[in-house]
Design goal:
Shape: globular
Helix content: 10-25%
Radius of gyration: 15 Å
CATH topology: Trna Endonuclease, Chain: A, domain 1
Number of domains: 1
Strand content: 25-35%
Number of helices: 3
Distance between the termini: 43 Å
């Protein structure tokens, strides 16, 4: 058994706990839905608004980064803006989080996966996801603020 469990389900549970601990350490209030029937893994309760966070992880090295998948069953992501507000992607080997608004992943056309490059540096011009590295402040934004983030 490795440190993340025997299978992807156990690793997913471990990563969810890592996210909840990190978010709580940044002062956020968390809610965990019972069971696996929701498209999101964790809710962020900020009094005036509620965000639905889907948590992903990867250790899959590709070229200069790590490939993070966003596919559900079938050929599309399986997610939509009516059920997820933000994706939290954890790069296991580097212990780095990317907090990416769902609108960035799901519009204009849903992406099945993205390349995240935590080892190259924050100013690497070709990686448009670097502004989302450790972007814990996005958890304090409203759904409408997050939806506008893909128009940068």
């Amino acid at each position: 058994m490795n440190r993340w469990g025997n299978n992807f389900k156990q690793r997913g549970e471990w990563v969810e706990l890592q996210f909840m601990a990190a978010a709580a350490s940044h002062g956020f209030h968390l809610l965990k839905p019972w069971g696996d029937s929701r498209a999101y893994d964790v809710g962020i309760d900020q009094s005036a608004h509620f965000l639905r966070v889907q948590i992903k992880s990867t250790s899959c090295r590709r070229r200069s980064g790590y490939y993070c998948r966003f596919r559900g069953g079938g050929h599309d992501t399986g997610y939509d803006l009516a059920s997820v507000d933000l994706f939290a992607s954890y790069i296991i080997p580097t212990n780095v989080w990317y907090l990416i608004p769902a609108s960035v992943i799901l519009t204009p056309k849903a992406k099945s996966g993205i390349l995240l490059c935590p080892e190259i540096g924050l100013h690497y011009n070709r990686n448009k996801y670097e502004p989302y590295r450790e972007a814990w402040g996005l958890l304090a934004k409203s759904k409408s603020d997050l939806a506008r983030r893909n128009k940068r």
